[in-house]
Amino acid sequence: MSTIDPRLTWSRFSTLATDMSGFAQIPSGARGLCTNTFDFTGIQGQSYYSLSLPGAREGPFTLKANPDIVSWSPCGGTAAIMNMNTQCNISPTQQQALIAVSLTQKVVVLWKG
Which of 9, 1, 22, 18 is nearest to 89 (CA)? Predict the structure, then answer.
């Protein structure tokens, strides 16, 4: 017989802040946009964070996110699946341009028990 720590059955957490780094090489007349989306499987609501990258620019960037709307993981159980999606785009696409992002993200969470 296994038991679940009672503290885990009502604990929840939320994303408080994230940092994502990258590099952009965008010519004049073009623009880039990077967006991070966070949510929890089975829960409605998402948190979005965007960074505009207007041209002309060449160099590193950091997308720092501090949500104005907090999305909480579900209560109960012993696990919550947090989904993180990063999308970047460049327009117009007729010019050579580049956006590269790190696969490493720093995430700060708030634990509520």
Answer: 22
DSSP 6: G
| Residue 47, φ and ψ in degrees, nearest 5 | -110, 130
Locate 2 and state its tokens: 């296994």
From CA 26, how far away is CA 6, in angstroms rounded? 52
Q: pLDDT (tens digit, 9 = 90+) per residue, 74-99?
A: 666 666 677 888 899 999 988 899 99
Residue 48: per-residue pLDDT: 79
Please, how many CA atoms are within 13 Å of residue 1, restricted to the half-sphere of its CB?
Answer: 1
pTM score: 0.72
The domain in which residue 65 lies consists of: 6-100
Number of domains forming the structure of the chain: 1
Task: Let me know if residue 109 belongs to a domain.
Answer: no
Strands 31-40 and 57-65, bridge-based pairing: unpaired
Cβ(90)–Cβ(97) below 8 Å: yes
Q: What is the pLDDT of residues 20-56, one digit of tens each?
A: 899 999 999 999 999 988 777 777 777 778 899 999 9
